C-alpha cells in the first residue's frame, strides 16, 4: 500500500474479505527462521484457531436459531396470555399439548447437539500439544476455551429459561435471550 493513512475501503477491501499478507514479521524474522519450538507453537495456535473457526462455522447459525426458537416456544406454548396459546387451547387442548411436547423435544435435540459439539471442540482444544515455554499458545488456548464455554453458558441459560417457564407456567419478564441472540 502506497498511502499508509488511506482506509482499506480505498483499496477495495470490504468487511469479511480474506487477505493474504506477504512480508517480514514485526520482529524481523521470516517464517523460515523460526526456531523449531516457535514453529511448533505456531502450528499449535493455528490448530486451536482452526478448531474454533470450524466450531463457529458449524454452530453459530444453529445457536442463533436455537435462541430464536426458544423465544418462540415460550411465547406460543408457555405464555397463557398470548393469542396463539389461547386459540390453540380452546380449539383442541390435546393437540396443543402434543404439538407443544413435540416442539420441546426438537428444542432439546438442538440443545444436545450444540452442547455435545461444543464439548467435543473443547476436548479437541485440550488435546493440542503445547511445550512448556509456549506462553502464546497457552494464552490462545485459554481464550478459545473461554469463548466456547461462554457459548455453552448462553445455551444453558436459554434451556433453563424454557424449563423454568414450563414448570412454573409463568412468563419470564427478566429474560435476556434477545441479548444472547446479539452476542452470538
Automatic annotation (TrEMBL):
Residues 145-184 are annotated as: Disordered. Coiled coil: none annotated. Residues 95-157 form the BAG domain. Residues 168-184 have a biased composition (Basic and acidic residues). GO terms for molecular function: protein-folding chaperone binding. Gene3D superfamilies: BAG domain (1.20.58.120). It comes from the Eukaryota. This is BAG domain-containing protein. The lineage of its organism: Eukaryota, Fungi, Fungi incertae sedis, Zoopagomycota, Kickxellomycotina.
Amino acid at each position: 500500500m502506497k498511502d499508509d493513512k488511506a482506509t482499506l475501503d480505498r483499496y477495495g477491501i470490504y468487511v469479511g474479505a480474506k487477505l493474504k499478507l506477504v512480508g517480514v514479521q514485526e520482529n524481523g524474522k521470516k517464517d523460515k527462521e523460526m526456531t523449531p519450538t516457535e514453529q511448533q507453537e505456531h502450528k499449535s495456535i493455528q490448530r486451536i484457531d482452526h478448531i474454533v473457526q470450524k466450531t463457529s462455522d458449524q454452530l453459530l447459525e444453529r445457536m442463533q436459531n436455537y435462541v430464536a426458537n426458544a423465544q418462540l416456544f415460550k411465547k406460543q406454548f408457555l405464555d397463557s396470555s398470548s393469542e396463539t396459546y389461547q386459540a390453540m387451547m380452546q380449539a383442541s387442548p390435546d393437540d396443543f399439548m402434543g404439538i407443544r411436547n413435540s416442539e420441546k423435544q426438537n428444542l432439546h435435540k438442538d440443545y444436545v447437539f450444540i452442547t455435545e459439539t461444543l464439548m467435543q471442540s473443547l476436548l479437541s482444544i485440550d488435546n493440542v500439544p503445547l511445550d512448556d515455554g509456549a506462553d502464546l499458545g497457552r494464552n490462545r488456548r485459554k481464550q478459545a476455551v473461554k469463548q466456547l464455554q461462554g457459548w455453552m453458558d448462553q445455551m444453558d441459560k436459554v434451556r433453563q429459561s424454557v424449563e423454568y417457564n414450563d414448570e412454573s407456567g409463568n412468563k419470564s419478564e427478566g429474560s435476556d435471550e434477545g441479548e444472547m441472540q446479539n452476542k452470538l
